[in-house]
Design a protein that fits this description.
heterodimer, A: 361 residues, ABC transporter involved in vitamin B12 uptake, BtuC, 15 helices, 1% strand, globular, B: 242 residues, alpha/beta, Rossmann fold, 2 domains, 6-stranded mixed sheet, binds adenosine-5'-triphosphate, binds magnesium ion
Chain lengths: 361, 242
């Protein structure tokens, strides 16, 4: 039933064409008033896909491809973190432990029951999701800062439990698994095939993130991030959605953990402790949690930086710290926001980042 | 039977009794005004009815159902929707997206709007659809608050001082939008301190003081009530008009 307004000038609703463009723009450009055109976004996506698929053929060597695999499975975990932090506004500094839950679940299923990669994957992902939800329970009662501390504690606790788990968890030495069960004609012992396995999972993670971002579900999460009380008052079940997004994030983490396990073939507790968790947090902030390619950019920068600059582990930790400070001070929306702003500037848009609370995540 | 029935509603914050046994009937075919001095419990009444705060005692019935303490989001889904005294929005999102979020929630089980654009047109925000809500001027932010609430397709709208902080012409425009709601099937319960506007706009006024309802009825009758004049002007200035 149309209602007429008398008080303000009418220009009518936005034409449908513009709305379709907005839809594409939502994630890549967050909610910016100046979206990148759909064409630019589509070309970016295609170029990126081609580059990633062609990577093993560029002759960059074994070491490069190994780092690329590490980067990609890390990015998958980061997409979960990007969803819970970038979209729903719930930061975690214990995310590596959630990946560890998936990795260890899969490893234990392999050692104890002889389940392979494909069969253990759904169980590992489900367990990560459940654990993600359970850690999330307190966040419904206490504020976000408390949740951050809880995730950090979970991380420490997880390492302690693993280290004291006897032969079941392999204690400090950890557990070994075989290689990924071959598919017809594809042997995952070959590094490039392992790369494609991880890449396929990354594409799934990217697609899921994109689809969530443009959906009603994504908008619901952003509403919770922006104003919980208002979200409730329009009928959003905030508690349910918070738990939900933490579980979805757990699914991503579980997938990433299992891929990590079957790439390394050996896992130990230190892989999932405080430092790796902090790196994940750093990567997602560095890249820009709200942007479609933000987590990937963050993973690439942090994993390749020491290689490119030839840094030893201590130096690279210092470099990370400096990077994080620079990003927080200069690019509060992460590298993703920076790139988007540059694009907008090139296109001649005047209002790049509008609005007070923008770019925090 | 009225759509909203409040019975013996009590709310205590520690030692402060903010609502002390309120009885209230509100129908969805008119504008009901709630007035009272600062701290008399008006906002608390909305907060408890809309599920933001749990009630200490008493019952709230909506369309015959007991909705006391069932949770804010469930109450909103039953199309009993409120706005906030502090102008609220999803500040980092565009005006379009703000309204779309509410519209998508209200659309479950059939809303009254076929698109979020209709709501923007109705409140006069259509030209600002692409603006980030956090950068809106205050008057537009108030309109957005109304648009978001309307997006849920309410049957009764609880408006907490929607005109506060607006200049005269903005407030007047706002009042004319509010006046259009009851004929469209959206009941309005309105809190405001502007007595002139309230007596123009409201079919019925309810006066609260210290968490108690002290008067109720048509505006002219309520404003002439000596108890009301005392509350507003103090016992020694009874002669002056409120
Ligand atoms: N969350 C709260 N915690 C503690 N006390 C509260 C809370 N909310 C309200 N109160 C108290 O309850 C009483 C009623 O406050 P309320 O906000 O309902 O008044 P009001 O009628 O809306 O006033 P105003 O016209 O200033 O908006 C006040 O004494 C206030 O201090
Ligand atoms: Mg108030």
């Amino acid at each position: 039933m149309p209602m007429t307004d008398n008080s303000a000038g009418k220009t009518g609703a936005t034409p449908e064409g513009v709305r379709a463009r907005d839809r594409l723009a939502l994630l890549t450009a967050d909610n910016a008033a100046v979206p990148l055109p759909a064409g630019v976004q589509a070309i970016t996506a295609i170029l990126l896909a081609v580059l990633l698929i062609a990577l093993p053929w560029l002759g960059l060597g074994y070491r490069f491809l190994s780092i690329a695999i590490t980067t990609l499975y890390t990015a998958i975990g980061l997409y979960g973190l990007g969803l819970q932090f970038g979209q729903a506004g719930i930061m975690s500094v214990g995310h590596a432990a959630l990946m560890g839950v998936g990795a260890y679940a899969s490893a234990i299923l392999s050692v104890q029951l002889g389940l392979g990669f494909w069969t253990s994957l759904p169980f590992a992902m489900a367990l990560s999701a459940i654990v993600g939800g359970v850690i999330g329970l307190p966040t419904l009662r206490v504020g976000g800062q408390h949740y951050i501390i809880i995730t950090f504690c979970f991380c420490a606790l997880f390492v302690i439990v693993l280290t004291n788990g006897g032969t079941f968890t392999g204690s400090a030495t950890g557990l070994d698994v075989g290689s990924v069960t071959p598919l017809p004609g594809i042997n995952f012992d070959k590094l490039s095939n392992n790369y494609y396995l991880v890449l396929a999972a990354l594409f799934l993670a990217l697609a899921a993130t994109y689809l969530i971002g443009i959906s009603r579900y994504g908008r619901t999460l952003r509403a919770i991030r922006e104003n919980e009380q208002l979200a409730r008052s329009v009928g959003i079940n905030v508690d349910l959605h918070k738990l939900g997004v933490l579980m979805v994030s757990g699914l991503f983490a579980g997938l990433a953990g299992v891929l990590q396990l079957y790439y390394l073939r050996h896992i130990s507790p230190t892989l999932f402790g405080a430092f790796p968790s902090l790196y994940l947090a750093l990567m997602v902030m560095l890249g820009g949690a709200r942007y479609l390619y933000g987590p990937l950019i963050g993973a690439v920068v942090v994993n390749f930086l020491p290689e490119v600059l030839n840094l030893d582990p201590v130096d690279s930790r210092i470099a990370y710290g400096v990077c994080l400070l620079l990003v927080i001070l200069l690019l509060p929306g992460g590298v993703g926001a920076g790139i988007k702003n540059i694009c907008c500037a090139i296109r001649g848009g005047s209002e790049t980042q509008v609005g007070g609370s923008n770019g925090r995540a | 039977m009225a759509a909203l029935e409040v019975r013996g509603l009590r709310k205590q914050f520690g030692g402060v009794v903010a609502l002390n046994g309120i009885d209230l009937d509100i129908d969805t075919d008119r504008v009901v005004g709630i007035v009272g001095p600062n701290g008399s419990g008006k906002t608390t009444l909305f907060n408890v009815v809309s599920g933001v705060h749990p009630a200490t005692g008493g019952t709230v019935f909506w369309q015959g159902q007991d909705i006391t303490n069932i949770g804010a989001h469930r109450i909103a889904r039953k199309r009993l929707v409120r706005t906030f005294q502090q102008a609220m929005s999803f500040p980092g999102l565009t005006v379009d997206e703000n309204v779309r979020i509410a519209w998508e929630q209200g659309r479950r089980g059939g809303g009254r709007w076929t698109s979020p654009g209709m709501i923007l047109d109705f409140v006069g925000l259509a030209p600002l659809g692409r603006t980030i809500a956090g950068s809106l001027p205050f008057g537009s932010l108030r309109r957005l608050g109304l648009a978001v609430a309307l997006g849920v397709s309410p049957e009764l709208l609880l408006l907490d001082e929607p005109g506060a902080g607006l200049n005269d012409s903005e407030a007047q425009a706002f009042a004319s939008v509010i006046a259009q709601l009851p004929p469209q099937g959206i009941g309005v319960c309105l809190i405001d301190h502007d007595m002139d506007m309230m007596s123009d706009l409201c079919d019925r006024l309810v006066v609260l003081d210290f968490g108690t309802k002290i008067a109720e009825g048509p505006p002219s009758q309520v404003l002439a009530d000596p108890k009301v004049r005392e509350v507003y002007l103090g016992p020694d200035k009874k002669a002056a008009a409120p």
